[in-house]
Each structure stands twice: as C-alpha cells, then as structure tokens.
Amino acid sequence: MIQRFTDIFEVPDLRKRVLFTLGAVAVYRLGAGIPIPGINGDAIRAIFEAQKNSLLGFLNIFSGGALGRFSIFSMGVMPYINASIIMSLLQGAHVLPYLDRLHKEGELGRRKLNSLTRYLTLFLAAFQSFGLTIAVTKMPSPGGIPVVSNPTWGFYMMTVLTLTAGTIFIMWLGEQMTENGIGNGISLLIFAGIVERIPSAVYNEISLVRMEEKGLITELFLLAALILVIMSVVWVETAQRKIPVQYAKRVVGRKMYGGASSYLPLKVDQSGVIAVIFAVSLLTVPMTVVTFAPQAPWAAKMMEFWSRGNWMYQLVYALLVIFFCYFYNSVSINPTDLADNMKKSGGFVPGIRPGEPTGKYIEWVLERITLGGALFVAAIAVLPDYLRRQLNVGFFFGGTSLLIVVGVALDTMGQLEAHLIMRHYEGFLKKGRIQQRWFNVGSQ
Predict the structure, then answer these.
(1) Cα gap 16→23, rounded to integer Å
(2) Which end of the chain is more exposed for a tag (fewer CB within 10 A), N or C?
(3) Domain annotation covers residue 227
(4) Angle 356-391/216-237 helices, nearest 10 degrees?
C-alpha cells in the first residue's frame, strides 16, 4: 500500500494535481482561521460552545470551525450548494424553458448554467451574510459579553462584503481544485473541515477516560460501532446492480461483429454524499430566516423546534436525504436515453424487448435499488447522531460526518487509482482496482 502511494509522486502530472489539491486545502484552512475585525473571539466561541449540539454547531463543523471563529470564510460553501440545488430543481421541474435549452446545448450550455449558478451564489451569499451579521450583533453570549461592542453601519458593510467575498473565493477555489486537482473540490473542502477537528475530538475522548468520566468499556464499544458504521458505508457505497446486456451479431462485409456480453452498472447509492450535503444545506434555510431576528419569541421557538435532538428535525432530515437520492438519480440517469442508445448499438437485455420496455425495466430496477440505498443513507445520517448525543461523544461519530468523509475518500481514491492504472501502474489493492460489489435484483 505504501508503494502505491509513492507511485503517485512518480507521475509528473498526477504529482502536480495532488500538490495543487493540498495547497488549495492549506489556503482554505488558513483563511478559516482569519477572524473578522471587531469581533470578540471569546464571546463568539462561548456562543458556539453552548450551541454545539444544535444545527448551528453542525454548520460550524461543515465550515471547518470557521463559523465558530467568525472568520472570513464563515459562510463556507453553503450559498454555492443552495444555488446549485435551486438550479437543479428548476431544471428537473422544467419550470424555465430557457434552462432546458441550455441543458441540451452541450458544453456551451453547461458553461452558461455554471455562470447563472455563480450569480445566484453571489446573491445568496450577500443575503445570508447580512442575516448572519445581524444575528451576531444581537445574539447574547452566555457570559453576557457582547460579540460586537460597537456595531455601526460601517461594520455591517465591511462584514457583509468580507463574508460574501470569502464565499465567492471558496467557490472559485473549489472549481479550480476540480479542474486542476484530484476529486471534487467543494466536497474536499467540506471533507477537510470535518477531518481537521478529529484529532482534538480524539484527544478529548482520551482525556475523559483518563479523568474516569467515561469508562474504557464504553469507549471500546464506541470504537467498534465506529468501525462497523464505516464498513457498512463502504459496503453500500461500492455496491452495484449489474444489468446484463447482450449485443446481437452483425455481418459487415466478410466480418462478423457483435455477439459480446456486457452489463449496465447501476450504483445502489448513485448520489454518494451529494444527497446528504444537499439535505444539510436545505436545512439551513430556516436558520437563515432566524438570523434576522434572533431574539424574537418566534425565533426562539423555531430554534428549539429545529434543534438536532428534536424528532421532527430528524424526520425532516431523513426525508430530505431520501428525496435528494431519488432527485439526483432523476437528473443524472435517463432510462429512456440508455435504452435508446443500447438499441442503436444492437444491445438488449435478455428477456426484455429493446426500446421502451427496456427503458421501463431499467427504471423499475433503479427505483428499487435507490430505495434501499436511500433508506440506508438516511438511517446512517440519523441513528449514529442519536447515539452520539445519548453517550456524549465527539462529533466525528456522527453519521453525517462519516458519510461525507468516507464517501469523499472513496471518490478521491478512485480517481487517484484511475490515474495510476491509466499510466500502467498498479492500483491500491494487490488484486487490481477498488472493486464495486454487485448483486441481483429479481426480474420483473
């Protein structure tokens, strides 16, 4: 395994991509530690310490601790993700014919859609930054110390401008990482923010055992549960349903072509961590509304209702994860187009007529395997968080964090391995590539 990682730095192009990714992550972590001028650091840390088990604390984890420091990157990538969700929903619902035309124009249309997403990100970042700035100036700290001693209009303008610029810079940095680095840039930035806090959380757990505030048996049980959850996430993330495809024989001139057997791979969890990130991002919308009047009675009730320990929050979160799993599949996979392409190339599913019946069969299989994958992801996102709160353990035992960390790690390793094999190197595993498991779904 060590030799496989050293092979990465023997390929000039791959080495350049890896170093660029690491440098971009370092820039992101540096910016996450630069606070906004005029903010009382002790007061803001006290607020987030009191809210660590709420949605506000969870958003702090997503920002890599930048929100808890109220740094220039406090908004993180949430405005960009919200803009991407809105654009995807508009395209999927066919609300605006203009977006449908752009979607069908190929590379040029994709660039225009990306530009529209960036403009929408700018608007959302400015709106959310303004709400967050108001909330910080009005939010009382546990010690009674004001977070901002003298909130003037100059402070509001400077803070909103800084937070908005920070979000746009993170969006640009993530896009550069996707194009010139390894893996998905936005996902890697979220990944870096979560992983950055794991060492301190592990140290805190060890300290609790040393002070005998927690038993060693309890910690061993949590470690076993953590390993079990990671194994189950890897097990589902790599699972596939392979639909057999047979190609008919064709005679061209004096040669015979076709007759080969292949398969159509459909992942059980096609969306990966996208569904989880989208669900968490959408849950921040009520939080944004609350920020404009944090001391109002209705805002306090909403905060209490929207806390992570509330069963309604958990139910809405699980339903959103399931919805986005199906929504991502509907956007990324078109069974009708797959069936038409198979028919044009002479392929067919044994026992299924080509054309429309094949498209319906693919859709039938896709709906059923997606249900299993979506229910699993929703359960992993909710149940370990409940266990974490009951046993008062570190954040990294949370299911959402684990789904993101494991999913992004698998995707990044898969891309690294693809680059190595393309250049005649071996993969990370001795027996070849990181394999996707597959299983059968009963015929229709």
Answers:
(1) 10
(2) N
(3) yes
(4) 170
Q: What is the pLDDT of residue 151?
A: 78
The predicted pLDDT at position 1 comes to 57
Contact between 166 and 129 under an 8 Å Cβ cutoff? The reply is no
> Is residue 319, in this structure, part of any structural domain at all?
yes
Total domains present in the chain: 1
> What whole-number distance in Å separates Cα of residue 68 and Cα of residue 61?
9
13 belongs to a structural domain: yes
72-86: string of b/e by CB count within 10 Å (b at 16+)? bbbbbbbbbbbbbbb
CATH of the domain at 167: 1.10.3370.10
90 near 96, Cβ under 8 Å?
Answer: yes
Query: pLDDT at position 436, please?
Result: 47
d(CA 206, CA 274): 33
- Return d(Cα 99, Cα 105) in angstroms, integer: 10
Q: How far apart (Å, rounded) are the C-alpha atoms in residues 180 and 235?
A: 30
Q: Is residue 444 part of a domain?
A: no
DSSP 220-236: HHHHHHHHHHHHHHHHH
Query: Residue 197's pLDDT is what?
Result: 77
Q: Are 339 and 245 in contact (CB under 8 A)?
A: no
Q: Is 55 exposed, middle or buried (0-12, 13-18, 19+ CB in 10 A)?
A: buried
**82 contacts 282 by C-beta, under 8 angstroms:** yes
Q: Which domain holds residue 175?
A: 2-438
Beta-sheet pairing, 239-247 with 347-348 = antiparallel
CA dist., res. 278 & res. 283, Å (int): 9
Altogether, the residues listed in the chain come to a count of 444
Residue 145 neighbours by CB distance under 10 Å: 14
Q: What is the pLDDT of residue 356?
A: 86
Can you tell me the distance from the alpha carbon of 125 to that of 163, in angstroms, rounded to the nearest whole number?
8
Which residues of the chain are modeled with pLDDT < 50?
Answer: 435-444
Query: pTM of this prediction?
Result: 0.77
Q: Which of 68, 79, 75, 65 is nearest to 29 (CA)?
A: 65
